Amino acid sequence: xxxxxxxxxxxxxxxxxxxxxxxxxxxxxxxxxxxxxxxxxxxxxxxxxxxxxxxxxxxxxxxxxxxxxxxxxxxxxxxxxxxxxxxxxxxxxxxxxxxxxxxxxxxxxxxxxxxxxxxxxxxxxxxxxxxxxxxxxxxxxxxxxxxxxxxxxxxxxxxxxxxxxxxxxxxxxxxxxxxxxxxxxxxxxxxxxxxxxxxxxxxxxxxxxxxxxxxxxxxxxxxxxxxxxxxxxxxxxxxxxxxxxxxxxxxxxxxxxxxxxxxxxxxxxxxxxxxxxxxxxxxxxxxxxxxxxxxxxxxxxxxxxxxxxxxxxxxxxxxxxxxxxxxxxxxxxxxxxxxx
Length: 340
Hints:
Shape: elongated
Oligomer: single chain
Strand order of the largest sheet: 2-1-3-4-5-6
Largest sheet: 6 strands, parallel
Strand content: 15-25%
Order of helices and strands: EHEHEHEHHEHEEHHEEHEHHEHEHHH
Structural class: alpha/beta
Number of strands: 12
């Protein structure tokens, strides 16, 4: 039996929970069975805790020798228990990594996290850089790369023409708080000729410049169909010249879910050239890799309508794959062969 254990998801509109519920839907399409409780969306923290606990207990009791269990990581306090019970019952475990606790939030030591992950039979990650980090730090089980997070939605990307005069509009979706992404306000001040459309909360209205357009929060399905912009910006931190801070540094290793949101919206991306996903953006010619956001005026001024049309077409082609769950399905299929 190929299976997974569902849980309670408190926030589905975007980000981590969206990625995890999409994975569950893709697994179902591949013949995986949910052996826990049905997927729930209870907002209460207490209710969520007991629902997930009950789902985990039900799931592990259903495992049998030879089963393949896919576990999405992190599973917080339940991961060690689930994997140990799966191993004890003779099941094989594929761990699909979303985030590393020792890297992003520093909640685990590297040694402890590697020890946990080595209890899996195989691991699915997204980038070559993450693979290298895991191997360099002692992971010994097979590692499969997915490339991009899929982004399931029935929405159809909007068809838009370039702004008058060929002026490209940049779009950012996420937390616009200066604490997390001060580059937004620095860019508005340093390059006032750029239009930057922001979807999300945390806007510091006192620092808005004429080129920054705050649109507020929009759910992902609506955003895909109505996104205003020509490029999605994949950038974090407090610097225009690099990914700065913990999130910015993490760009070197992880695959931000917002990259897939932009591509699913049919938008080519602008991404730091040291980011882990820069390679796949180059491979598909689906955007621009830059060392500094300060270089954008010059780079965009050299970009011809034909060049942009090619990147736009490639982004639309990727949007179709992301909508079908192609990247995760392919990676999971390869992981199944690795544990056979």
